[in-house]
């Protein structure tokens, strides 16, 4: 009886992890990065893959679905994730925030009424491509740093670089849940 229950639990876990969560199941430093940065990249890539898997087949109606007048569209949220990652590239590598020439990034990062009006009508692949490009740059930049830099304080000394990138990861996890909630309600 105990073996049967254990087998059923194991099969349930396998079905859950491969079907619903689509996680990599193992956190391991990506090659070519210092150890701690490699682990962060592994986790960031896992979240990005899971979010992408959830949305990549959305049609235009799904991409632009608005759950209510104060909500955000899934396409806009994907761009928001890319914008937040871009922001932390600038913050941790250049010690700055978005400037006037980067107003579109700022709008995507803050979302709100203007983004609700403007971030509509593009296919989900458009937003995913932008996020892919931002992630490629994140990896390029982080590959040039080591774990000592990761532990260093940012220019504003209110967080270290590791915490800044941890925040990018937790931000993506937060929106992964929001995207899952909204995608289940698409009419």
Number of strands: 0
Kindly name the structural category.
Answer: mainly alpha
How many discrete structural domains?
Answer: 1
Secondary-structure arrangement, i.e. CATH architecture = Up-down Bundle
The low-confidence parts are 4-21
Task: Please report which band the strand proportion falls in: under 5%, 5-15%, 15-25%, 25-35%, 35-45% or over 45%.
Answer: under 5%
- The geometry reads as globular
What's the oligomerization state? Answer: single chain
What does it look like?
- The protein is mainly alpha-helical and 187 residues long.
- It has a single domain, classed as Up-down Bundle (Four Helix Bundle (Hemerythrin (Met), subunit A)), CATH 1.20.120.450.
- Helix content is 68%, strand content 0%.
- The chain contains 9 helices and no strands.
- The chain has helices at 2-21, 35-55, 60-63, 74-94, 103-110, 113-118, 124-143, 147-151, 161-183.
- The model is unreliable at 4-21 (pLDDT under 50).
Task: Report a brief summary of the structure.
Helices cover 68% and strands 0% of the residues.
How is this fold's topology laid out?
Layout: H1 2-21, H2 35-55, H3 60-63, H4 74-94, H5 103-110, H6 113-118, H7 124-143, H8 147-151, H9 161-183
Describe the structure using short key phrases.
187 residues, mainly alpha, Four Helix Bundle (Hemerythrin (Met), subunit A), 0% strand, globular
């Amino acid at each position: 009886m105990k073996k049967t229950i254990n087998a059923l639990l194991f099969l349930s876990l396998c079905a859950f992890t491969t079907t619903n969560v689509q996680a990599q199941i193992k956190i391991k430093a990506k090659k070519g990065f210092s150890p701690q940065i490699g682990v962060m990249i592994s986790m960031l890539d896992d979240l990005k893959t899971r979010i992408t898997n959830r949305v990549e087949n959305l049609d235009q109606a799904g991409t632009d679905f608005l759950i209510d007048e104060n909500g955000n569209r899934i396409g806009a949220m994907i761009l928001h994730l890319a914008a937040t990652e871009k922001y932390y590239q600038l913050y941790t590598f250049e010690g700055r925030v978005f400037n006037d020439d980067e107003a579109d990034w700022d709008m995507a990062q803050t979302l709100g009424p203007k983004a609700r009006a403007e971030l509509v009508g593009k296919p989900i692949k458009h937003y995913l491509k932008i996020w892919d490009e931002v992630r490629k740059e994140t990896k390029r930049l982080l590959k040039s740093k080591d774990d000592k830099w990761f532990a260093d304080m940012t220019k504003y000394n209110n967080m270290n670089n590791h915490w800044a990138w941890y925040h990018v990861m937790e931000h993506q996890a937060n929106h992964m849940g929001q995207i899952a909630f909204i995608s289940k309600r698409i009419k």
